[in-house]
Amino acid sequence: MLKITEDDAHDCLILEPSGSLNRSDIDRLTERFNDMVNATGRVPNLVVHAPGFPGWRYFGTMLKHLRFIREHHKLIRRIALVTDGRILEYAPKIARYFVAAEVRQFPPEDLDGALAWVAETQPRTSGVTVIEGLPDDVVGISVDGMIGASDYAATIVPLIEAKLARHDKIKMIYRIGPGFEAFTPGAVWADARFGTLHLAGFSKVAVLSDIGWIRHSVRLFAPLIPAEVHVFGADDLDAAKAWVLAA
């Protein structure tokens, strides 16, 4: 059985395994995880609270079936393991599933310390850069690193809405740089929601990327977009500008 508690104050999910875990436990966790992401636009950290370490068999079962770990392992920032010292023997195995996350063990009586640790905020630099020197009816942005819902709320959406307030139709240059890592689930949601409301306001969209799956996806969905769409290499900014500005 797996008890799951959402802790909004510490922006985390508290997981308390007891006895054997089964697929329904994992499905319920995946659902709660995704619901929290969609509700907050942030990826929660994880606190595993097991005062008496239940053994690798239980942790292994949980990790084996957590599909969202494979999809979002770069997004989960911290994992706190609140349990006895025997966890240290297995910590490297657990950490292997969370390539980009910091994993730390706390003694069984220090749940408060674990919650405080996962809740520590770290300054985050926006991964969005506005491409300057373009006509007023053209939006130019370049993204790198991890792009979250806050990037949409703080930069992308206000920029586009301001231009749509001045022009019936606008054009876009969207460059996905070599340092791009991923869109968070919150960013994907923000993008889908924004596209539903404003996609008809674009006449041309140039997407610049060398990432295969992005180039393929853009070409696949281009016929569904009510605008001319063209894919360029990440370094072909001049060619993209020429295409967007052509009558």
Observed structural traits:
five-stranded mixed sheet, single chain, 247 residues, elongated, alpha/beta, 10 strands, Transcription Regulator spoIIAA
- Percent helix among the residues? 40-55%
Tell me about the largest β-sheet: 5 strands, mixed
Sum up the overall morphology in one term: elongated
Helix/strand order, N-terminal first: EEHEHHEHEHEEHEHEHEH
Number of domains: 2
Name of the top-level CATH class of the largest domain: Alpha Beta
- Strand fraction band? 25-35%
Strand order of the largest sheet: 1-2-3-4-5
Tally of DSSP β-strands: 10
Q: Which oligomerization state do the chains in this entry correspond to? A: single chain
The end-to-end span amounts to 63 Å
- Stretches where pLDDT is under 50 for at least 5 consecutive residues are none
Number of helices: 9
Q: Would you give the CATH topology of the largest domain?
A: Transcription Regulator spoIIAA
CATH architecture of the largest domain: 2-Layer Sandwich
Average pLDDT works out at 81
| Structural class estimated from helices and strands | alpha/beta
Question: What is the CA-based Rg, rounded?
Answer: 22 Å
Structural commentary:
There is one protein chain. Helices cover 43% and strands 28% of the residues. The chain has 247 residues and is of the alpha/beta class. It folds into 2 domains: 2-119, Transcription Regulator spoIIAA, CATH 3.30.750; 128-245, 2-Layer Sandwich (Transcription Regulator spoIIAA), CATH 3.30.750. Strands 1-2-3-4-5 form a 5-stranded mixed β-sheet, with helices on both faces. Helix 6 runs parallel beside helix 7 (185-198). It is elongated, with a radius of gyration of 22 Å. The relative contact order is 0.11. The model has no long low-confidence stretch (mean pLDDT 81).
